[in-house]
Design goal:
This protein is α/β, with parallel strands linked by helices. Helix content is 31%, strand content 24%. It has helices spanning 13-19, 22-30, 73-85, 95-103, 177-187, 193-201, 209-220, 225-228; strands at residues 2-6, 36-40, 56-59, 90-93, 107-110, 116-124, 127-135, 137-141, 147-151, 159-162, 166-169.
Length: 237
Amino acid sequence: MILGILQTGRVSDEARALYGGYPEMFARLFEPRGFEQRVWMVVDGEFPDGPDAADAWLITGSPHGVYEDRPWIAPLERLIHEIRDADRPLVGICFGHQIVAQAFGGRVEKYEGGWALGRRDYQIAGQTLAMNAAHQDQVVEPPAGAEHLGGNAFTKHAVLAYGDHILTVQPHPEIEAGFMGYLLRLRGTHLSPEELEAAIAELEAKNDADRAADWIAEVLRGTPVKRAMSRLEPATA
């Protein structure tokens, strides 16, 4: 299957040399799960001809805000509508989560409570999943028709679904410990010393990125979001 990556930002040259950019991070998750990637640099104004250019779509994270006045934001929102209308699977991660909500009429803001950086627990479908987070912006008002699937006290609307084939998540299953440590060194001043110390201490702690990736991969293959949630259930001994 061709997974169309809609890249909405870049990591620094230093980070890319050490950990790879967004496409490499997602390739580590989804190539072993049977996907071949094709990347469109949306952040540079590069767009596919339409939703049929790939079998499924994924919108990446970004250092930009969805509310910024950038020339590629409105075309991306139009493409999101086209993908939905074509009934193609679509997954949004972090910025992708936020831009899908905004495209459908929701509201995204810088959260007055500050930043989420590091390993966080999320309640999703009766399961507790730990994933890495790196954001201040968040969906504060989901659009009409969005189904709330998960969150936590800091990020209430962390996982949303729109019908059977659109899933968006605020945390980053693609961010591994090395890159998370880099982000903590870069943005750790946004945390209190105690929060930063705790986040660093948890860098190598086990998280549930693989379980989340199994779920996301099922959605990308066309399995309805809620039916695919069985992939979140922990393996039994």
